[in-house]
Amino acid sequence: MEAKQNNWHKELKNSTRTLAIWTFLWVFTLAFVAFGPKFIWNENEAVTLVMVIINTLDRSRHDFK
């Protein structure tokens, strides 16, 4: 019984860590796309479009099932 509980805690810890990492990456990439045009690439629409596409494709590839 204790082995099952330890395994459950280990899985919970791993899942929580994975979720935290993906959440941080999502927030970072969203902020990058939101603030990049103004502060990094000076309103270049082509770069903005490429970054939005990359952000969308990357996120859709890693959706939780």
Terminus-to-terminus distance: 29 Å
Round the mean pLDDT to the nearest integer and report it: 83
Would you report the number of β strands?
Answer: 0
Total helical segments: 2
Q: Give the overall shape, derived from the CA principal axes.
A: rod-shaped
Write the H/E string, N to C: HH
Computed Rg: 18 Å
Oligomer: single chain
Low-confidence stretches at least 5 residues in length (pLDDT < 50)?
Answer: none
Keywords: Membrane, Transmembrane, Transmembrane helix
Plain-language structure description:
With 65 residues, the protein is mainly alpha-helical. The protein has one domain (2-61). The chain is built from two helices and no strands. It has helices at 2-39, 45-61. The model has no long low-confidence stretch (mean pLDDT 83).
Task: Jot down its keywords.
single chain; 65 residues; mainly alpha; 0% strand; rod-shaped; transmembrane helix
Topology:
Layout: H1 2-39, H2 45-61
How would you sum up this structure in a few lines?
This protein has helices spanning 2-39, 45-61.
